Every structure is written in C-alpha cells, then in structure tokens.
Amino acid sequence: MKILTEEQILLFKTFIQEHDFFLITGHKDPDGDVISSCLGIAAIMEKSGKPYQLLSAGPFKRQEIRSKEPLFSQTMRFLSQDERNRTGLIIADCSEFSRLGEIEGDFKGLDTFILDHHKTAGQPDGCKSIIDPSAPATSCIIQMLYEGIIGRLDKAVAKELFFGMSTDTGFFRFLTEDSAEVFRASARLVEAGANPRATYDEITGGKPYLTRKLLGKLLEQAEVFCGGKLIVTYETMEDTRKYGAEGRDSDMLYQLLLSTEGVEAVVFVRQETDNTCTAGFRSKDRVDVSAVAASFGGGGHKNASGMSVEGKLNTLIPEICKKFARIL
Questions:
Q1: What are the DSSP calls for 226-282, one per residue?
Q2: Pair 137, 165: CB distance under 8 Å
Q3: Mean pLDDT (the chain, rounded)
Q4: Spatial CB neighbours of 100, under 8 Å, sequence gap ≥ 6
Q5: Which end of the chain has the smaller Cβ count within 10 Å, N or C?
Q6: Measuring CA to CA, which residue among 60, 8, 63, 68 is closest to residue 42?
Q7: Across 44-48, average pLDDT
Q8: Which of 89-98, 139-148, 226-235 has the lowest mean pLDDT?
Q9: Is 175 helix (H, G, I), strand (E, B) or coil?
Q10: For 120, which DSSP code?
Q11: Which backbone phi and psi does 296 adopt, to 5 degrees?
Q12: Of 139, 196, 141, which is closest to residue 168 (Cα–Cα)?
C-alpha cells in the first residue's frame, strides 16, 4: 500500500475547507468497507466542524453492518441553489454514479470528490479524486486522510476503520508480502482502541440459521469447469424465497470453494429477478477476475470482483465459463 502524499492530503483538506456542507455516500448493496469509509469521512467532518448527511441506497443485507443502517438516509436533504453551490459530494468505495443506486435527490452539478481503491475505478469528468488500487480497502485511505488532517485517532474511529479494513482484506487473509504498510496502519488502529477479536466476532458471528442451510444448498449445486480450475455455483429465486436474503454468508462460500484442490477461481451467480442476475468472482493470486467482470460491465479487484447484468442463469453461466476458459 502506498502512503498518501502531502499533495493528496492537501487536496482533500482544501476540498473540506471550500464547502460548508457535505453529502457522504458510497455504492449500493453496501459492505463493511464502504460503511466504515463513510463513517470515517463523517468523523473527519465532525472534527473539522462541518455538517454532513450520510446517504446509502442500501439494502443493508449483511448482518455485520445492519446496526449502522439508521445512520444513513435514502433521501437527500433539500438544498437551495445557494446551498448546492456550497455543498461537497464525497463518494467512497466506488467511482461510478450508476453504482450509487436509487437515492432520492439530484447529485448533478455538485462539486464531487471520489475516494476509492478499486482497480477498475474510473474518474467521471470534473471530479477530484484519490484512487489507489494498492490500498486493500478504502478504509485505509480514509485512515491516512484522518491522520493527515485531524491527527491522532480516537477509539471510535479506530474501531470503525479497523472493521472496514478487516472486511475487505478477509481479516488480512488476502494480503501478501508487500503489505507491511497495511499492518503498520492496522497496528495504529489497535493502539487507538480497535479490538481484533471483537471485530472478528462482529464480522463472522450472528448469522441466521437459514444461512447455514443455504450455504449447504450452494455447495451442493456447485459444479467444476475448466479442468478443475473453476467452480461455479448459483442461487435461484426459489432458493432465495426458501432461505431468505438476510445475512447471507458468501464470504464463507468463496473461502470453502477456493480451498478446493486445483481450483483457481470461483463464480457465484444469483438470479435476482426474472431477467437480472448478480455474480461474484473470487480467485487465487494469479487470476485477474476483474477483467472478466469488466467484460460484462462490472468491476472490482484483481482477486475479487462482481457484476449485475440482464440475463438468466441457464444462459449466463455458460457465457461466464467461456470467459474464464480463456484465462485459466
């Protein structure tokens, strides 16, 4: 992970100074990193004496972030034209306005700053940004901004940022030998009061019983492709109706399937509606799944990406397998 330069920190600090009010948001279907990043940005605003509103399209499906939902709104507060001129929009953990989801309000024309770490992130015209794919989580970028602008971390923000960092790194499982700076940053969070054991329990515990049944169903439906290098599983709309959509444990699913001998990549496709599917891709080190996701209009990281597309399971899965056959 690269350390933010003084110029990058000054760029964000100046953005804060230039505005009187802030809208803070991130991608739809939030995960721990985007929620912690937004709350970390909010902490910077509070320390800077700047009012703000937290926005998220939701839904807050993940058990570990559900308690944070009341802090966010789906409706942007009304702003007069004069207020809009003095308002800054900060987008965390994504760079595409389309990925913000359905938030009631008009972001058009707002001065915008993007904070992201995704490899496939692009920068919309006219937006300021700090986009660093070397950071394993956007929360890491927020930590460096907090330390550079505010200074010493307090316990509340340390716990929040450690949570975000832990979710996106698979509790540090996805880090490699070039991650020393990440561990130094996480050590500062622990020194400030973040509790690794409590964070792990918060992320992995409290799963509804039916999610265990669904996990078994998804493992049963898994099939091997590409000479044993690819495993694909799927969730039908009937599966969702039977087992529910709350507290899904896709992280455990990926972990179990990737641990299979010879497997280099895993695909999980879910039929969301009659005509739309979402898909998640995970891989071991050498396989770049972001390229496959991007070919369908999705994106993400080299080893963890996803997409949302029109289609049905029976036609989409063969298309995905063809893409993977070219890189495995």
A1: GGGTEEEEEE-HHHHHHH-STT--HHHHHHHHHTSTT--EEEEEEE-SSSEEEEEEE
A2: yes
A3: 94
A4: 25, 26, 27, 28, 57, 91, 94, 107
A5: C
A6: 68
A7: 98
A8: 89-98
A9: coil
A10: T
A11: -105, 10
A12: 139
Cis peptide before 30 (omega within 30 of 0): no
* Local confidence band at 121 (pLDDT 50, 70, 90 cut-offs): low
Q: What is the pLDDT of residue 120?
A: 67
Window from 1-10, 114-123, 125-134, 309-318 with minimum mean pLDDT: 114-123
The average pLDDT across 82-92 equals: 97
**One-letter identity of residue 61:** K
Please check whether residue 148 is in contact with residue 46, taking contact to mean a CB–CB distance below 8 angstroms: no
Q: How far apart are CA 93 and CA 123, in angstroms?
A: 12
Amino acid identity, position 99: R
Residue 209, C-beta contacts closer than 8 angstroms, at least 6 positions apart:
none
Do 105 and 25 meet the contact criterion of CB atoms below 8 Å apart? no
* Domains, the chain, with CATH or none: 6-203 (3.90.1640.10), 209-325 (3.10.310.30)
